Amino acid sequence: MSEKLTVGLLQRKCSTDPGANFAGTVEAIREAAKRGGQIICLEELFRSQYFCREENAEHFDLAEPIPGPTTEALSKLARELGVVIVASIFERRAAGLYHNSAAVLNADGALLGLYRKMHIPDDPLYYEKFYFTPGDLGFPNFDTRYGRIGALVCWDQWYPEGARLSSLRGANILFYPTAIGWHPAEKAQFGAAQLDAWRTIQRSHAIANGIFVAAVNRVGFEGPPESRLEFWGSSFVADPFGQIIAEASTDKEETLIVECDLRRMEEVRRNWPFLRDRRTDAYAPLLERWLG
């Protein structure tokens, strides 16, 4: 494995046409590969608009099996371009059983495995519990051609436990495919603080674990004016001390190509040895819901 790897983050808008979204993503993957991207991550549920803004059983028609049409097409593309692809897909596991999953396709086209979103939100315009069963695969790592990675999804990014467990399995970088944005009624008062909190919590995962973190979000407005979301983009890569190496805008489609020098992990962990000083003998109470 090389001491360096290059990630590509595709920050895109999504239309109401899944076919057009997929075609545009394929084109963007080709561009990222041409620019040197080795591990290319797509935004959460990239084939469609963020349908969880409402509870509508017709949206289950968007789901597909894994392996299935999307992973098969991306597998061929990964093999052709020699890139790793992290793709967030609405997985139909069985009739009435669905997951929000990240499929990891190696540079030879092999499906290395899945991560199924563990933490499922239920908030206004984020009605994910209606659609998704919580994941049951834990927090796996994936040995790709270019490095060992972890792949978590959106709401997972607020939980230090998931980042820690993935990091302890030896990942060099954590990817977070994301769909997060502002409610129109909240942006003026709370928008800046919300975006800052989102950025800060993920930078904290990088610092606490001495690991690279890559978050890729969508942009644009989705939904009718009275209940629309404005996705805030701001896709970024943070180094193992939480310093942001590259960051996209809040409102434009962009492809970030970012080189990650894995020697930085050794440097940071030697000087800030948080993993060494963990008191694993004292953390059993973390398994409880509440200790009050």
Overall description:
The protein has 5 helices and 17 strands. It is globular and about 50 Å long. The strands form 4 sheets. A 6-stranded mixed sheet has the order 5-4-3-2-1-17. It has a 6-stranded mixed sheet with strand order 8-9-10-12-15-16, covered by helices on one side. Strands 11-14-13 form a 3-stranded antiparallel sheet. The model has no long low-confidence stretch (mean pLDDT 97). It has helices at residues 18-34, 69-81, 160-168, 187-209, 263-271, and strands at 4-11, 39-41, 84-94, 97-105, 111-116, 122-123, 126-127, 141-143, 148-151, 173-177, 181-182, 212-216, 219-222, 229-232, 236-238, 244-247, 254-261. Helix 3 runs parallel beside helix 4 (187-209). It has one domain (4-287): Nitrilase/N-carbamoyl-D-aminoacid amidohydrolase. With 292 residues, the chain is an alpha+beta fold. The longest helix has 23 residues, at 187-209.
